[in-house]
Amino acid sequence: MAEAGVASRRQSEKLIVAGHVKVNGNVITELGVKVSNNDNVSVDDVPLSRQRLEYYLLNKPRGVVSTAHDDKGRKTVVDILVDDVDTRIYPVGRLDYDTTGLLLLTNDGDLANKLTHPKYEVDKTYVAKVQGIVTNDDLKQLRLGVMVDGRKTKPAKTKITNVDQKKKTTIVQVTIHEGRNHQVKKMLKAVGHEVIKLHRESYGFLTLAGVPGGQWRKLRTSEVMQLKEL
């Protein structure tokens, strides 16, 4: 179902349990039922056909939500690609409304699920402009892990790239492999620094080289293979 572009893997499971899925005309509500290419699968009586899997890298601009649909009518990351992409794609994880940078979109539900699962420890590197002067002690706390929403974060890699003594701001690079809600912002706030701007510059081995803000490109076959190896 995920490969056919119906929904993400988790949403597909919910559709199955709720009785929306039929295999060879019979309603299936149990997860893990095996099907072959000879079986007829439908969702709400609409037959499924396996779509070609597609993978895209987007340099997300500000003021865009990381979802396929928004009930508030705001522009989504999918809207940016919609005129050129026929398949139903969705973002791999999320970037906040005001956060910019690298975001993957695909209709490969299995890969999306694995890339967002913390056990696979895929590094994501962010550049944050924060209020105040970040100290070595602040960086040490981030490297050891800080308390966010009652749980300690995994150790982060950190580096200061610029300090503006006059404006009392710091630009710091943070690399994490978790993906909790607003995590980088909360981590920096935990050490006393409010985030002014946040940008994701890399995801695993992928970077934004050659992709300006608001633009996108297809992933190469070799890049998709590397992602699967992660």
Essential attributes:
nine-stranded mixed β-sheet; Alpha-Beta Plaits; 3 domains; Pseudouridine synthase; elongated; Structural Genomics Hypothetical 15.5 Kd Protein In mrcA-pckA Intergenic Region, Chain A; PsdUridine_synth_RsuA/RluA; 230 residues; RNA-binding; isomerase; rRNA pseudouridine synthase activity; alpha+beta; four-stranded antiparallel β-sheet; 21% helix
Give the termini separation: 23 Å
Helix-and-strand structural type: alpha+beta
Average of pLDDT: 92
Main sheet attributes: strand count, strand direction, barrel closure: 9 strands, mixed
User: In total, how many beta strands?
Assistant: 15
What is the second-level CATH architecture of the largest domain?
2-Layer Sandwich
Order of helices and strands: HEEEEEHEEHEHEEEEHEEEH
CATH level 1 class label of the largest domain: Alpha Beta
Categorize the overall geometry: elongated
Strand content: 25-35%
Question: How many alpha or pi helices?
Answer: 6
The CATH topology of the largest domain turns out to be Alpha-Beta Plaits
Poorly predicted residue ranges: none
Based on the structure, what is the oligomeric state of the protein chains? single chain
CATH superfamily label of the largest domain = Pseudouridine synthase I, catalytic domain, N-terminal subdomain
Number of domains: 3
Family: Belongs to the pseudouridine synthase RsuA family.
Keywords: Isomerase, RNA-binding
GO biological process, one term: enzyme-directed rRNA pseudouridine synthesis
EC number: 5.4.99.-
